[in-house]
Amino acid sequence: MIDTLISWLCTTEGVDALVLSGSRTGLVVDAMSDYDLYVYGEKPLGLEVRREMAALFASSSEVGNSFFDEGDELFLRDGTAVDIMYRSLQWAEEQVSWVWQHHHASVGYSTAFIHNLKSSTILCDHTGRFAQLKKLLDTPYPKELAKAILRKNYPLLRTKLMASYYEQIEHAIIRNDLVSQAHRTAALLASYFDILFAINGQTHPGEKKLVAWARKTCPILPEGLETSIEQVVAHIGQKDLLLYLDSLLNGLDALLKREGWNQ
């Protein structure tokens, strides 16, 4: 049924391009991976059209979600889970220009949208603009972008003068603030993986299965990566969390020094 839905979308007015991305185009697909379809047009399809789509193909649906991106969620009549998101090609072109061509970094997930675009499978592309984006991204990872990501994220881990993630976690432990510990540890890990993927010339795959993805795509990794991550996560909320954060970050420091990256 997914093929029938794809054909219907590709012939719907207002759809300039339709692509498949997300976990179904990744290296670590599992039984819980749904279909992430991205509809590119000048504006999202109207709600009436989307309700018609749900009536035609879905056994249950949520149409008009706007919790994150504008989108719809469908369980097709054969049980297939489909997440449909609506974006503009202009937005995608601006992302490629800002990040890939002009080397602007973010705090965590610097290249996550680029990864989404780069790894997309084109299902239809009526204007050819999405194919042009893919061509622009089919180039070596910009070294200047990797440097920018390192400059943006590395000091946040524990070296900046005030309010590094490490210091915030330390304060949260003293205050016995479990929520803050969890929140700041998650932020630290986001910047940690942003750096790790960047220095390996890999785009950031998002929030899921990061250790598995790093194992599959990154030729240079800190020693004991998986164990270090497991220990950090297992000790959130415990007094000795900083010991395991030190081990994790010391491993990254050793890697950066060995590979000639200047922080």
Task: Describe this structure in a few short sentences.
51% of the residues lie in helices and 14% in strands. The protein is an alpha+beta fold and 263 residues long.
SSE layout and pairing:
Blueprint: H1 2-10, E1 17-21, E2 35-40, H2 47-57, E3 58-65, E4 71-76, E5 81-87, H3 89-101, H4 112-118, E6 121-125, H5 129-137, H6 143-158, H7 165-175, H8 178-199, H9 210-217, H10 225-234, H11 241-259
Parallel strand pairs: 2-5
Antiparallel strand pairs: 1-2, 1-6, 3-4, 4-5
Helix pairs in contact: 3-5, 6-8, 7-8, 10-11
Q: What attributes does this structure have?
A:
263 residues, alpha+beta, Beta Polymerase, domain 2, 2 domains, six-stranded mixed beta sheet, 51% helix, globular
What does this structure look like?
The structure is a single chain. The chain starts with a helix and ends with a helix. 51% of the residues lie in helices and 14% in strands. With 263 residues, it is α+β, with helices and mostly antiparallel strands. Strands 3-4-5-2-1-6 form a 6-stranded mixed β-sheet, with helices on both faces.
Round the Cα radius of gyration to an integer and report it. 21 Å
- The CATH class assignment of the largest domain is Alpha Beta
> How many helical stretches?
11
The proportion of residues forming helix, as a percent range, comes to: 40-55%
- The chain-level structural class is alpha+beta
| Main beta-sheet annotation | 6 strands, mixed
Number of domains: 2
Average pLDDT metric: 94
Number of extended strands = 6
